[in-house]
Design brief:
The chain contains 16 helices and 13 strands. By secondary structure, it is α/β, with parallel strands linked by helices. Helix content is about 40%, strand content about 15%. The protein has 2 domains: about 250 residues, 3-Layer(aba) Sandwich (Rossmann fold), CATH 3.40.50.2000; about 170 residues, Glycogen Phosphorylase B (Rossmann fold). Helix 1 crosses helix 16 and helix 4 packs parallel to helix 5. The strands form 2 sheets. A 7-stranded parallel β-sheet has the order 3-2-1-4-5-6-7, with helices on both faces.
Length: about 425
């Protein structure tokens, strides 16, 4: 069996979306002739902890760990946070105004810590893994980012040991939705683009999660890219409860709601429907599972929807699956950012696994909208199209009120994690043969 060294910052018991992709690949890689070996920090700054994910790791997997130094303790002290506070990703606002200390910290993060705050782990990791590789043979190396420091570790190892390297991008680099919020100077911006170019040119294989990301990378470096989307694990849904009808028309969103993902048109549409239809007002329930930006909470209050809101800060992944299965409708909000058209978020694929109808707000020609339409998984309305959104929501409400089964019978097998792992294993094989 071939061996692959996987360099990943996110690994159980870290929780959240970042850990799912390679945790699931690792779960099934042995079925396709690859023995995974994990390299991950011993003390990561993870926004969530989910011990339930430890059960997903196959027996006897080798996990290598070294300590990482990150500047977050200085950041917490500088901005007046507690030492135990979790650092949220994607600029999620926890209060109304961003203070001067916060702005200075963002500038420092963007201009001095390149490619990211994990940059101080690059040299120690290269030193540790170089020594380990002298005594342990592997057939390939994988790096998964962000954080893109993982790619820099792999790049140096590839150059030193001539081992085939696959760079996996779960999100873009210089076109990630919060790139413009980093307050980058010209020097820092040039360095980010230079490092991105270096990774795309030198990796033996590059995998991406959306068609839009593939197109944009092709404009940077004209080479072969392989699209391997995120997915869902059929085993997660088989072991959870079957859908149970409730007396509420529940709309559920899974994951954090940052400012750029605040669906103001949804709050307006729901407020209008609740005022116009007594039954809808009585039946409505809004379930938000995950961190909520301060400005999202403000919008909900502004439109008088607080009474319908059920807010759940964080749930272990197995409980998240239950929430998805038992919602009447699942909500998907595409970030209102310049790269909105290429966002194909991981939660969309778990929504497909739950087989509940999806209400999506985002560019109707974007990757997410195209996929939802292609597999008939739900309804999409463009940004600011409140009227169409009201029609979409009310159509599902009326069907639910009439006792119709809202579950979606779609062929989603191509998005099952085991099938996606087969594609990833084939890409690793191809990288080794080049």
């Amino acid at each position: 069996m071939k061996k692959v060294l996987i360099i990943t910052y996110y690994w159980p018991p870290s929780g959240g979306g970042g850990v799912q992709r390679w945790l699931k690949f690792v779960k099934y890689l042995r079925d396709f002739g690859w023995e995974p070996i994990i390299y991950t920090p011993e003390n990561p700054e993870a926004p969530q902890t989910d011990a339930s994910l430890l059960k997903e790791i196959p027996e006897d997997i080798m996990v290598l760990k070294t300590k990482v130094w990150e500047p977050y303790q200085f950041y917490k002290h500088f901005t007046g946070r507690k030492k135990a506070d979790k650092i949220q990703t994607a600029f999620l606002s926890e209060k109304k105004n961003t203070g001067l200390a916060e702005k200075i910290s963002i500038w420092i993060r963007g201009n001095l810590f390149i490619p990211d705050a994990r940059c101080f782990w690059i040299k120690p990791s290269v030193k540790y893994l170089s020594q380990w590789l002298k005594e342990n043979k592997v057939d390939a190396i994988v790096s998964t980012g962000p954080p893109h420091s993982m790619h820099m570790i792999a790049l140096k190892l590839q150059q030193e040991h001539r081992i085939p390297w696959l760079a996996d991008f779960r999100d873009p680099w210089t076109n990630i939705d919060y790139y413009q919020d980093l307050m980058l100077g010209k020097r820092a911006d040039r360095k980010h683009h230079r490092l991105e170019l270096k990774v795309l040119k030198n990796a033996d294989a590059v995998t991406v999660v959306s068609p839009g990301m593939k197109r944009e990378f092709e404009e940077i470096v004209d080479r072969r890219y392989t699209l391997i989307t995120n997915g869902f694990d059929a085993a997660d849904f088989l072991k959870n409860r079957i859908y149970q009808k409730t007396d509420k028309f529940s709309l559920a969103h899974i994951g954090s709601l940052v400012k750029t993902r605040n669906p103001k048109e949804l709050w307006q549409a729901l407020s209008s429907l609740a005022q116009s239809h007594t039954d809808f007002s009585r039946d409505l329930e809004i379930r938000l599972i995950g961190k909520i930006d301060y400005f999202v909470g403000q919008s909900i209050e502004k439109f008088g929807l607080k009474q319908y809101l059920k807010e759940i800060d964080y749930l272990p992944h197995d409980q998240v699956i239950e929430e998805q299965i038992n919602a009447q409708v699942l909500l998907l909000f595409i970030n209102r950012t310049p790269n909105a058209h290429l966002i194909l978020t991981g939660k969309l694929f778990e929504y497909l696994g739950a087989a509940r109808p999806i209400i999506c707000i985002g560019p109707i020609q974007g990757d997410a909208a195209q996929l939802i339409s292609k597999v008939s998984a739900g309804l999409v309305s463009d940004f600011d199209d409140v009227k169409q959104l009201e029609i979409n929501i009310f159509s599902y409400y009326q069907a639910w009120k009439n006792g119709e089964d809202l579950s979606k019978k779609i062929d989603n097998s191509r998005f099952e994690r085991r099938n996606l792992t087969a594609t990833m294993a084939a890409e690793l094989n191809a990288a080794c043969d080049r």
